[in-house]
Design brief:
By secondary structure, the protein is α/β, with parallel strands linked by helices. Helices cover about 55% and strands about 15% of the residues. It folds into two domains: about 130 residues, 3-Layer(aba) Sandwich (Rossmann fold), CATH 3.40.50; about 45 residues. The chain has a five-stranded mixed sheet with strand order 2-1-3-4-5, sandwiched between helices. It is globular, with a radius of gyration of 20 Å.
């Protein structure tokens, strides 16, 4: 059977190889032929229409009659419950099964029909992942607020200033997209960085 591997991480600095290696080993065990591997280094909270690699993966499966997509865990498909479920539904409509490795579940049965139990689990897992992401953000904000309220100062020490090289290295993802001609708004979505940060990096590049 020909299959496709889909792997995603949120930032340029993260490594995709562990996900790919585990999925390759699984395919070898079951004698699956890996027809293609699609990888994304992009935030999973974007809309599906804004994720070029995800769109290419689905198109490839449809054009090449691929009936199974493998991903390492639910959050690798995306962070937004709505967008994840839309992707799963789109795959299901095209008789493409999604295999989620860490829970060993598939959205379609061997006869190509929808697996109701697995699809229920996908909905639950996706919702839980999104809830955890929101809770983490809330805890971080609460911690910062509590620290400030008790006299703490968040940020760099007064008088500290990063060098131009350090700033460009810290925001290499922004530099990459600016060099590709992406707009500020697009880069903000792709990198999860503020307008101020993107504009600062753009100014540094313009003056270099």
């Amino acid at each position: 059977m020909d299959v496709v591997i889909f792997s995603r991480v949120s930032t340029e600095g993260q490594d995709l190889q562990r996900q790919i290696n585990e999925l390759r080993a699984y395919c070898k065990k079951l004698n699956y032929n890996v027809a293609e591997i699609f990888t994304e280094k992009i935030t999973g909270v974007l809309k599906n229409s804004e994720r070029k690699v995800l769109t290419e993966m689905i198109s490839f499966c449809k054009q090449n009659n691929i009936k199974k997509v493998l991903c390492w865990e639910m959050s690798r498909l995306g962070r937004s419950t709505v967008e994840v479920l839309q992707t799963v539904e789109h795959l299901t409509e095209n008789k493409i099964s999604l295999y989620i490795h860490n829970f060993s579940i598939e959205t379609l049965n061997s006869d190509g029909e929808k697996n109701p139990v697995s699809n229920l689990l996908v909905q639950i897992l996706s919702s839980v992942a999104e809830m955890e992401r929101v809770q983490i953000r809330q805890r971080i904000k609460s911690g910062y607020d509590n620290f400030r309220n008790n006299g703490g100062v968040v940020g760099r020490k007064k008088g500290y200033k990063k060098s131009k090289e350090d700033l460009l290295n810290d925001h290499s993802d922004v530099v990459k997209y600016l060099n590709k001609g992406r707009s500020v708004r697009e880069i903000m979505k792709l990198t999860d960085k503020s307008n101020g940060t993107v504009m600062k990096v753009r100014k540094l590049l313009a003056n270099s």
